[in-house]
UniProtKB/TrEMBL annotation:
Domain of life of the organism encoding this protein: Bacteria
Pfam families found in the cross-reference section: MoCF_biosynth (PF00994), MoeA_C (PF03454), MoeA_N (PF03453)
PANTHER family cross-referenced by the UniProt entry: GEPHYRIN, MOLYBDOPTERIN BIOSYNTHESIS PROTEIN
GO cellular component: cytosol
Family: Belongs to the MoeA family.
Compositionally biased residues, Low complexity: 380-390
Protein's UniProt name: Molybdopterin molybdenumtransferase
Domain spans labelled MoaB/Mog: 244-380
Organism annotation: Streptomyces taklimakanensis
EC number: 2.10.1.1
Length: 504
């Protein structure tokens, strides 16, 4: 073990000594088994995980795959609203209807090159000025892009034309400027262009009313461009789930250096952008301190589809999330997950229908909660509206596949699976297989819980990173993925599933 690794290991051991107030803690914890406090023998606690009696809660402690599936199913229940918005506001949303061309593309026969529109075999007598420039004269002149209804071209004639200009009626081909020569108002070419050369015929790309993209397609900059080219000024889109982030903890500072026992808020700057990266529209990130009433009021009054809290999920005196959910009569769908770090994470349905993901306060534990609960919830949101609302439109054509369901290139040493490894089937919420990779170093496991371990791609596999304790972000900040290490651990060379980070 290198000096750095030893330091790392000590940090992890100390971390767990400092953080965990768990009576069952075992003495044999090592760096590899970091975060390894046992839960019940079957990974289930049966009651609210903190031992408080919340008899009206349906406490649900799940293993890691089940927790993801529950989150995905919850997301699939969402009934997204659609609205018709100007193109400039559509970026990042999903199409609520197929993108339908309002025009032929091109809308008219178009020159693909700068040169001359010619009619018949050459040589051709030139109409308009010899250099093709507009001289303001009333007679025939060159044809520029943007000109309407150019004069017809007679057989044996030619006229200067610019790329993108409408070809005059009677044109049989466009001769590129580098292929012809004009002398004494006659255009000659060593080789006559074939019929139709360098003319983009009307409707070459699409006809009016053609479906160019299916409903559910993510609106990217290229989609905006296509929509504009096809004549649209607005697009029907599904609203992304609206998310609100509530950062809990009186000990947090929003600027400057840690002092007086207080620490910098590492989650406020991180959670909102992370949610955006997996499909949410973050409407606010608010700091609430450790104020139980403020939390209750925020949850009761939220207009978001998803509330994400950070901290306050455990059993400490100021851990207010469970009591607030209890007082509101929220339904706990996931109440603790057999995963390290992050086991106190939770998922609830608020009485108004919004979901709440409670992320543990330790920063890497919060990332574990984002990947385990928030991402499956958001990614499984339906791609098409289930009911028609004003401005909304028909369902996706059956059998069409949103483009981002396509596997993309995987790094060396990573095989199989689907991009991001998140649930893709909104009807069933079933998680799709994750890509896998071989561990280049052994990872010690928890006896019963799954471990999520930041890794970096390294040649033929993935290498676990140092500085990956529950309170640390130094490792994950350089990671390409989190390896899913099953209970019992992963030997060198064994294949483990990967949770890819949304921006990798
Ligand atoms: N009796 C038990 N105590 C704890 C358990 C347990 O099972 N039984 N689990 C431990 C584990 S594991 C975690 S993770 C934490 C989760 O605690 P909370 O979600 O209640 O989070 P806090 O207590 O508010 O904070 C924990 C830790 O994280 C720091 N923190 C919180 N928010 C932020 C932030 N925005 N930026 C940076 N750091 C943050 C906070 O200062 C604490 O150090 O509970 C253990 N306890
Ligand atoms: O081990 Mo806790 O779950 O730090 O995250």
């Amino acid at each position: 073990m290198s000096g750095d690794e030893l330091a790392d290991a000590l940090a992890l051991v100390n971390d767990h000594r400092g953080d965990h107030r768990d009576d069952h803690r075992t003495a044999d914890r090592t760096a590899g088994a970091a975060g390894a406090e046992p839960s019940g023998p079957d990974g289930s606690r049966g009651t609210a995980h903190d031992g408080r009696s919340h008899s009206t809660h349906r406490a649900r402690h799940h293993d890691w795959p089940t927790a993801r599936a529950v989150a995905a199913r919850a997301g699939a229940e969402r009934r997204p609203e659609s609205a018709t918005v100007p193109l400039a506001e559509a970026l990042g949303h999903r199409l609520a209807a197929p993108l339908t061309a309002l025009t032929d593309l091109p809308a008219f026969d178009t020159s693909a090159m700068d040169g001359w529109a010619v009619s018949g075999p050459g040589p051709w007598e030139l109409d308009g000025p010899e250099d093709g420039r507009h001289d303001g004269s009333p007679g025939p002149s060159g044809v520029l892009a943007g000109h309407d209804a150019p004069a017809p071209l007679l057989d044996g004639h030619a006229v200067r034309i610019a790329t993108g200009a409408r070809v005059p009626p009677g044109t049989t081909a466009v001769l590129r400027s580098e292929y012809g020569e004009v002398r004494d108002r006659w255009l000659r070419a060593p080789r006559a262009p074939h019929h139709g050369a360098d003319i983009r015929p009307r409707a070459q790309e699409c006809r009016r009313d053609d479906h160019l993209l299916p409903a559910g397609t993510a609106v990217t900059p290229a989609v905006l461009g296509l929509a504009a080219a096809a004549g649209l000024d607005e697009l029907p889109v599904l609203h992304r789930p609206r998310a609100e982030v509530l950062v809990l903890g009186d000990e947090l500072l929003s600027s400057g250096l840690p002092e007086g026992g207080r620490v910098r808020d590492a989650l406020g700057p991180m959670v909102g952008p992370w949610l955006e990266a997996v499909g949410a529209e973050v409407v606010a990130t608010r700091r609430l301190g450790d104020d139980a009433d403020a939390l209750l009021a925020a949850l009761a009054g939220t207009t978001a589809d998803l509330v994400v809290t950070t901290g306050g999920t455990a059993a400490g005196p100021v851990d207010h999330v469970h009591p607030a959910l209890h007082r509101l009569g929220a339904e706990l769908l996931v109440d603790g997950v057999a995963v390290r770090p992050g086991h106190p994470m939770l998922l609830a349905r608020l009485p108004g229908g919004a979901h709440l993901v409670g992320l543990p306060g330790n920063p890497l534990a919060a990332i574990s909660g984002l990947l385990t609960l928030a991402e499956p919830l958001l990614r499984s949101s339906p791609r098409v509206p289930s009911r028609t609302s004003p401005g909304a439109v028909p369902r996706a054509t059956p059998g069409t596949t949103p483009p981002d369901d396509v596997s993309h290139d995987l790094p060396d040493g990573v095989s199989g699976g689907v991009s991001g490894g998140v649930p893709r089937d909104p009807r069933h919420g079933a998680p799709v297989p994750l890509p896998t990779a071989r561990l280049l170093d052994e990872v010690q496991g928890h006896p019963r819980d799954t471990r999520l371990v930041p890794v970096v791609h390294d040649g033929r596999g993935v290498r676990p990173l140092r500085f990956s304790g529950p309170a640390m972000l130094r490792g994950v900040a350089t990671a390409g993925a989190l390896a899913v290490v099953p209970p019992g651990g992963g030997a060198t060379g064994s294949a483990v599933p990967l949770l890819r980070l949304p921006w990798v």
